[in-house]
Specification:
Mean pLDDT: 86
Strand content: 25-35%
CATH topology: Immunoglobulin-like
Largest sheet: 4 strands, antiparallel
CATH architecture: Sandwich
Distance between the termini: 40 Å
Order of helices and strands: HHEEEEEEE
Oligomer: single chain
Radius of gyration: 21 Å
Number of helices: 2
CATH class: Mainly Beta
Number of domains: 1
Low-confidence stretches: 15-26
Helix content: 10-25%
Shape: elongated
Length: 127
């Protein structure tokens, strides 16, 4: 009978930590702190140059969806539309708008002079 208060204490500690984890401690990401990033690396020395592009979800807890990039006059002929789809001038969507898992990276290559690619719109899909 003396062990019963200890079990109750352990139970309430677990409930408290579970609640904090699910609703407070890193359960969600702020756009300002965990915005997706785009890095471009020149590959080789050809003319026109070739670039490897990495789009990264920097949120450790939540997928991001519907990632749109500012992409200027990027030509759809340069990359598979499943990886980067040109919707309009200066609006391209990554991965068909499908989720990029936490800390996941998506890569694609293109051969052309360098385009300015940067995230302009995305949504965190936290539960």
């Amino acid at each position: 009978m003396q062990g019963q208060p200890a079990y109750k204490l352990i139970f309430w500690i677990l409930v408290t930590f579970t609640s904090l984890f699910c609703q407070g401690w890193a359960a969600k990401c702020a756009a300002s702190d965990h915005a997706p990033t785009v890095q471009q690396t020149k590959v080789g020395t050809g003319d026109p140059p070739r670039f490897m592009v990495e789009v990264r979800n920097n949120c450790p807890m939540c997928p991001i969806i519907n990632v749109h990039l500012k992409c200027g006059s990027f030509s759809q002929a340069l990359v598979n539309p499943r990886l980067l789809k040109v919707l309009a001038f200066d609006d391209c969507v990554v991965n068909g708008g499908l989720p990029l898992q936490p800390l996941h990276k998506l890569f694609f290559n293109y051969t052309h002079s360098k385009y300015l690619l940067r995230p302009i719109l995305w949504y965190f899909q936290c539960e």
